[in-house]
Design brief:
Chain lengths: 200, 200
DNA sequence: ACCTGAACACCGTTCAAGT
DNA sequence: ACCTGAACACCGTTCAAGT
C-alpha cells in the first residue's frame, strides 16, 4: 500500500475479510452482511472472497469458529483467575460468559444459530466443545465436593448453561434491560442458578 | 380460480401472505424468506404485498405478533387445565412453552429477535406481555403461598423464563438432542428451576 | 496461486398505470 | 381500494480470463 507495488492484496485477504466480517456482523447483523460489501471494504473485487470462502455460509461458519475460540480463551482465563471457592468459580465463569456474549451479541447469536444445520463443518462443534470444557470441569469439581447435585456432569452443565444463555439471549434482544440493571440481575440469576444446582 | 371471474385475489391477500409466510419461515428460515416467493405462492404480482406490508420487516413483525398471540392461547389453556398444586402449574406452563417453541422453532426465534429492533411496532411488545401474563400470575401466586422466593414478581418470572428459553434455544439449534431425550431433560431442568425459585 | 470482470438469476423497493 | 408491470439498485454465485 506504501510505494508502487500495490499487489493483488495487502497480505492476507482471508484475515482481512474475517475482520471486516466481524465488524459488519455487529454493525448490521448476519442477515444484512454482504460479501460484496466486505470485498469493497477490503479493496478487492467481489469475486475475490471466493478463493477463501466457498460461499457466504462458509464465511459465517469461520466467524462462528473464531467466536468459539475467543470464548474459550475468556472462559479459561476466568476460571484460572478465580479462587478455590466453588460458588466464586461458577460466578466467575458466568460473568465471563455474559460479558463476552453481551460484548458480541450478533456473533453470539451466530454461534448458537442454525450453524448447526445441515452442512456445518465438524470443526464448529469441536470448537464449541473446547470452549465449554472449563464449565464442564467446574461442574465435575463441584460434584466431587458435594456442592452440586450428582448426575451426568454434561447434563448438569448443560442445564446450567442453558439458563445463563437464556438470560443472555433475552438481554441481547432488549427484553430485559427495560427495567433491570443487568449486573444486579445477573448476580440474582446466578445465585438462583447455583441454588438450583445445590443438592437439597 | 373456478369460473371466469378471476378477481384480483381470492379474498384476503393479507391473511394468505401471513399463512404462506409462516410456512416459508419454518421451511427455509427468516433469512431466506422472500416476499417475491410468497407473492408467487399466493398467486399475485411481486408488488402486491406492498398494499398490506410496507416492507419485509413489517411482514416479519406481523408473523411475530401472531406468534405471541398463539403462545398466549397455549399458555392460558395450560394454566387453566392444571390443578391447584404450584409445582404442577409451573410444570404445565413450562411444558406448554417448550412444546410451542419446539413446534415453531423459526417463529420462536423471530419472536425474540426482531422484537426490539429500531422501529418495532409497540403492538409487538404488548402482545409479548399479554402472552406471558399467565406466567407472571403463577409466580405471584407462588409467592403468596410461600412456594417462591419473594421479590418483584416480574423479575423472578423473567429469571425463570430466561432459563426455560435458554433450554429451548439450545434445543432448537441442535445443541442438546445429540445425547439427551428432551422430555426427560425438560423435567430435570424444570425441577432444578423450581428448586432455584424455592426459598431456602 | 490469487485475483478480475462480465454475466446470470434472484432480491427488495418504488412508481406510474390499470380496473 | 387493490393490484400489475416495468424499472432500479443491489445481491450471491459462476466462470473464463488475466498476472
Amino acid at each position: 500500500m506504501s510505494a508502487t507495488t500495490r499487489p493483488y492484496h495487502h497480505g492476507n485477504l482471508r484475515e482481512a475479510l474475517l475482520e471486516a466480517g466481524e465488524r459488519a456482523l455487529e454493525a448490521h447483523g448476519a442477515q444484512n452482511l454482504s460479501l460484496r460489501e466486505l470485498a469493497r471494504d477490503v479493496g478487492v473485487s467481489h469475486a475475490a472472497p471466493r478463493r477463501h470462502f466457498a460461499d457466504k455460509q462458509a464465511l459465517l461458519d469461520a466467524l462462528a469458529l473464531d467466536g468459539f475460540e475467543g470464548l474459550r480463551t475468556i472462559l479459561t482465563g476466568a476460571i484460572a483467575d478465580a479462587g478455590p471457592d466453588f460458588d466464586a468459580r461458577l460466578l466467575a465463569l458466568a460473568r465471563a460468559y455474559v460479558a463476552y456474549a453481551t460484548d458480541h451479541p450478533a456473533l453470539t447469536a451466530l454461534m448458537f444459530a442454525s450453524k448447526h444445520q445441515d452442512g456445518a463443518p465438524p470443526e464448529l462443534a469441536e470448537a464449541a466443545e473446547r470452549a465449554f470444557a472449563p464449565a464442564l470441569t467446574a461442574v465435575a469439581e463441584g460434584q466431587r465436593t458435594g456442592a452440586v447435585v450428582p448426575g451426568e456432569p454434561e447434563r448438569v452443565a448443560k442445564v446450567a448453561f442453558a439458563a445463563l444463555h437464556g438470560l443472555v439471549a433475552l438481554t441481547n434482544n432488549g427484553l430485559l434491560d427495560d427495567d433491570l440493571p443487568l449486573d444486579a440481575f445477573l448476580d440474582e440469576a446466578v445465585e438462583r442458578l447455583v441454588a438450583g444446582l445445590r443438592p437439597r
